[in-house]
Protein backbone atom coordinates (compact mmCIF):
# COMPACT_ATOMS: atom_id res chain seq x y z
CA UNK A 1 0.00 0.00 0.00
CA UNK A 2 2.81 2.36 0.93
CA UNK A 3 4.58 1.62 -2.37
CA UNK A 4 1.40 2.28 -4.34
CA UNK A 5 0.89 5.59 -2.57
CA UNK A 6 4.46 6.72 -3.30
CA UNK A 7 4.11 5.64 -6.95
CA UNK A 8 0.82 7.53 -7.26
CA UNK A 9 2.33 10.72 -5.75
CA UNK A 10 5.35 10.50 -8.10
CA UNK A 11 3.11 9.96 -11.12
CA UNK A 12 0.86 12.92 -10.27
CA UNK A 13 3.82 15.17 -9.49
CA UNK A 14 5.57 14.38 -12.80
CA UNK A 15 2.33 14.98 -14.75
CA UNK A 16 1.78 18.33 -13.05
CA UNK A 17 5.36 19.44 -13.79
CA UNK A 18 5.02 18.43 -17.41
CA UNK A 19 1.71 20.30 -17.83
CA UNK A 20 2.96 23.47 -16.12
CA UNK A 21 6.04 23.67 -18.37
CA UNK A 22 4.24 23.31 -21.70
CA UNK A 23 2.18 26.53 -21.69
CA UNK A 24 5.22 28.61 -20.75
CA UNK A 25 7.24 27.44 -23.74
CA UNK A 26 4.26 27.87 -26.07
CA UNK A 27 3.75 31.43 -24.81
CA UNK A 28 7.44 32.18 -25.37
CA UNK A 29 7.31 30.92 -28.95
CA UNK A 30 4.16 32.93 -29.64
CA UNK A 31 5.75 36.05 -28.18
CA UNK A 32 8.89 35.59 -30.31
CA UNK A 33 6.76 35.12 -33.45
CA UNK A 34 4.85 38.33 -32.64
CA UNK A 35 8.14 40.25 -32.50
CA UNK A 36 9.20 38.81 -35.85
CA UNK A 37 5.86 39.75 -37.44
CA UNK A 38 6.05 43.32 -36.12
CA UNK A 39 9.65 44.15 -37.14
CA UNK A 40 11.18 42.46 -40.15
CA UNK A 41 14.18 43.39 -42.30
CA UNK A 42 14.47 41.93 -45.81
CA UNK A 43 17.10 42.66 -48.46
CA UNK A 44 16.03 42.71 -52.12
CA UNK A 45 18.04 42.93 -55.35
CA UNK A 46 16.51 45.35 -57.84
CA UNK A 47 17.16 44.55 -61.50
CA UNK A 48 17.42 46.95 -64.40
CA UNK A 49 19.05 49.92 -62.66
CA UNK A 50 22.80 49.29 -62.58
CA UNK A 51 24.99 46.56 -64.01
CA UNK A 52 27.09 46.71 -60.83
CA UNK A 53 24.01 46.02 -58.71
CA UNK A 54 21.22 47.65 -56.75
CA UNK A 55 20.27 46.43 -53.29
CA UNK A 56 17.38 47.54 -51.07
CA UNK A 57 17.29 46.81 -47.34
CA UNK A 58 13.63 47.16 -46.30
CA UNK A 59 12.28 47.49 -42.78
CA UNK A 60 8.70 46.36 -42.17
CA UNK A 61 6.78 47.27 -39.02
CA UNK A 62 3.55 45.42 -38.32
CA UNK A 63 3.99 43.80 -41.76
CA UNK A 64 3.85 47.15 -43.63
CA UNK A 65 6.77 48.89 -45.32
CA UNK A 66 8.33 51.47 -43.00
CA UNK A 67 11.74 52.43 -44.40
CA UNK A 68 14.15 51.36 -47.10
CA UNK A 69 17.82 51.98 -47.66
CA UNK A 70 18.80 51.46 -51.31
CA UNK A 71 22.37 51.27 -52.61
CA UNK A 72 22.91 51.73 -56.34
CA UNK A 73 26.48 50.71 -57.22
CA UNK A 74 28.30 52.14 -60.24
CA UNK A 75 31.77 52.04 -61.77
CA UNK A 76 32.84 55.47 -60.49
CA UNK A 77 30.55 55.90 -57.49
CA UNK A 78 27.37 54.92 -55.74
CA UNK A 79 24.09 56.43 -54.60
CA UNK A 80 22.39 55.75 -51.29
CA UNK A 81 18.65 56.46 -51.27
CA UNK A 82 16.58 56.33 -48.12
CA UNK A 83 12.80 56.08 -48.42
CA UNK A 84 10.71 56.78 -45.30
CA UNK A 85 7.10 55.78 -45.85
CA UNK A 86 4.31 57.91 -44.42
CA UNK A 87 0.56 57.54 -44.94
CA UNK A 88 0.30 59.94 -47.92
CA UNK A 89 3.87 60.50 -49.10
CA UNK A 90 7.44 59.23 -49.01
CA UNK A 91 10.46 61.18 -47.78
CA UNK A 92 13.49 60.57 -50.00
CA UNK A 93 17.06 61.32 -48.94
CA UNK A 94 19.54 60.89 -51.75
CA UNK A 95 23.32 60.87 -51.19
CA UNK A 96 25.69 60.50 -54.15
CA UNK A 97 29.24 59.35 -53.55
CA UNK A 98 32.33 59.11 -55.75
CA UNK A 99 34.98 56.48 -55.17
CA UNK A 100 38.49 57.68 -54.29
CA UNK A 101 39.81 55.11 -56.78
CA UNK A 102 37.43 52.47 -58.16
CA UNK A 103 34.67 50.11 -57.01
CA UNK A 104 37.09 47.27 -56.19
CA UNK A 105 39.16 49.49 -53.88
CA UNK A 106 36.24 50.39 -51.58
CA UNK A 107 36.81 48.82 -48.16
CA UNK A 108 35.12 51.33 -45.85
CA UNK A 109 33.15 54.58 -45.79
CA UNK A 110 36.48 56.42 -45.88
CA UNK A 111 36.87 55.32 -49.52
CA UNK A 112 33.72 57.30 -50.50
CA UNK A 113 33.48 61.05 -51.11
CA UNK A 114 30.04 62.70 -50.78
CA UNK A 115 29.41 64.63 -54.01
CA UNK A 116 25.70 65.53 -53.68
CA UNK A 117 22.93 65.34 -51.10
CA UNK A 118 19.25 66.17 -51.58
CA UNK A 119 16.01 65.59 -49.65
CA UNK A 120 12.55 65.64 -51.24
CA UNK A 121 9.09 64.04 -51.11
CA UNK A 122 7.29 61.83 -53.62
CA UNK A 123 3.81 60.30 -53.69
CA UNK A 124 3.15 56.56 -53.96
CA UNK A 125 3.16 56.75 -57.76
CA UNK A 126 6.67 58.27 -57.74
CA UNK A 127 5.67 61.84 -58.63
CA UNK A 128 7.94 64.46 -57.01
CA UNK A 129 5.95 66.63 -54.58
CA UNK A 130 8.77 68.97 -53.51
CA UNK A 131 9.51 72.16 -55.43
CA UNK A 132 12.87 73.23 -56.84
CA UNK A 133 14.31 69.73 -57.16
CA UNK A 134 16.75 70.13 -60.05
CA UNK A 135 18.23 66.66 -60.20
CA UNK A 136 17.19 63.40 -58.60
CA UNK A 137 17.51 59.68 -59.28
CA UNK A 138 14.17 58.20 -60.28
CA UNK A 139 14.14 54.47 -59.49
CA UNK A 140 10.84 54.30 -57.64
CA UNK A 141 9.00 52.38 -60.40
CA UNK A 142 11.67 49.64 -60.40
CA UNK A 143 11.58 49.64 -56.60
CA UNK A 144 7.80 49.09 -56.56
CA UNK A 145 8.12 46.15 -58.96
CA UNK A 146 10.74 44.38 -56.81
CA UNK A 147 9.65 45.24 -53.25
CA UNK A 148 6.28 44.37 -51.67
CA UNK A 149 4.81 47.17 -49.56
CA UNK A 150 3.02 44.71 -47.28
CA UNK A 151 3.99 41.27 -46.02
CA UNK A 152 1.31 38.60 -45.99
Kindly describe this structure.
The protein has 152 residues and is α+β, with helices and mostly antiparallel strands. 29% of the residues lie in helices and 36% in strands. The protein is built from two helices and six strands. It has helices at residues 2-38, 140-146; strands at residues 39-45, 54-61, 64-73, 77-85, 90-99, 112-122. The chain has a six-stranded antiparallel beta sheet with strand order 1-2-3-4-5-6. Mean pLDDT is 79; it is low at 1-32.
Number of helices: 2
Main sheet properties: 6 strands, antiparallel
- Residue fraction in strands: 35-45%
Q: Report the C-alpha radius of gyration, rounded.
A: 26 Å
Can you give the mean pLDDT? 79
Instruction: State the order of secondary-structure elements, H for helix, E for strand.
Output: HEEEEEEH
The number of strands is 6
Helix content: 25-40%
Overall form: globular
- Structure class: alpha+beta
Order of strands, widest sheet: 1-2-3-4-5-6
The parts where pLDDT drops under 50 for at least 5 residues are 1-32
Amino acid sequence: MKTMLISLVLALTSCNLKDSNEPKSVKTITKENDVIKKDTIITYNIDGISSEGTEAKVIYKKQKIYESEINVYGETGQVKLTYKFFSTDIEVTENSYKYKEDLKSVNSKDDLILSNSVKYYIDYSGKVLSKNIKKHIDIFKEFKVSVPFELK
